[in-house]
Amino acid sequence: MQPGKISIGEAVSWVGGGWRIFMASPGMWLLIGLVYLMISSAAQFVPFLGGLIAFIIAPIFTAGLMYTAREAGEGREIRLDYLFQGFRETGRAGPLFGLGGVYLGSVIGIVALCAVLLIMTGSMPDLSREAVGGDGLPDAALLNILLVVMIGLALFIPVLMALYFATPLVMFHGTPVWTALGSSLRACLRNFWPLTVFGLVLFVLLLGLALILVLVVGLMTAMFATTGSATGAASAGVLAAVVLGMLLMFLISIPLVSILTGMNFCSYRSVYGGQPENRGAGMAG
User: Fold this and answer.
1) Could you tell me if residue 75 is left (phi over 0), alpha (psi between -120 and 50 degrees) or otherwise beta?
2) CB 164 within 8 A of CB 3
3) Residue 46, CA distances (Å) to 38, 39, 101, 166, 202 in order
4) pLDDT (tens digit, 9 = 90+) per residue, 65-97?
5) Residue 66 to residue 85: CA distance in whole angstroms
6) What pTM was estimated for this model as a whole?
7) Would you tell me the crossing angle of helices 139-164 and 93-120 to the nearest 10 degrees?
8) Minimal CA–CA distance to 84: which of 57, 47, 117, 50?
9) Any idea where the domains of the chain sit in the sequence?
């Protein structure tokens, strides 16, 4: 798979493209987003292994979401069971789980490396009970921690670049895992500035949404606290505001999952557009 080169303007257009894909069938997208978030949340509650499972299963459900976005983007009706298309299409589940393994292994490796660097520089924070409430870390240790965090981020960026297009390449083309990772990395490097601008636009939009959410939660907290003070239950009022804020954040996440998936599909289609996809071969349903 040879990725193409796109313009910054085309990258910015992915925002509108994702919205149009969502609006093609908003009701079904909301249902799909709800089921996806419920599955992702349930995985986190598996004792000891919840976080690991979430990494492993992420690509296979992302593949289902991308498949749904392709169908919606091409004017076809979408269904809830498309979320599980990565399991249903022959020869896809294993490589998609393999991508999840690469994702998990990369995160563990980077975190372990950062921990080793912190230990070697003597900057590992002391989280023991005796250390809580102390004078804090010296400035040199804080600078070392900041440097190690920057190193970790620098290492994680190419991992994300390698994974960004790998899932649709495996899902739509049956590309082998390492070939898909390499192609995705090359595609991101070749389109570094368009993807960077797209990321900044998306960041600003999400930041604005987050600020609105914080403002709403803050207003609810003030309102409930004021009401609670009058009845002698200020703490209960604040707790109610926090719970409602978390519920609101979950409700916003439902359409957001679908819209972001639509944007990701638009980016894949732009970079790898015009190349044949494996449609129907080995497809169930």
Assistant:
1) left
2) no
3) 13, 11, 18, 27, 32
4) 999 999 999 999 999 999 999 999 999 999 999
5) 10
6) 0.87
7) 160
8) 57
9) 8-272
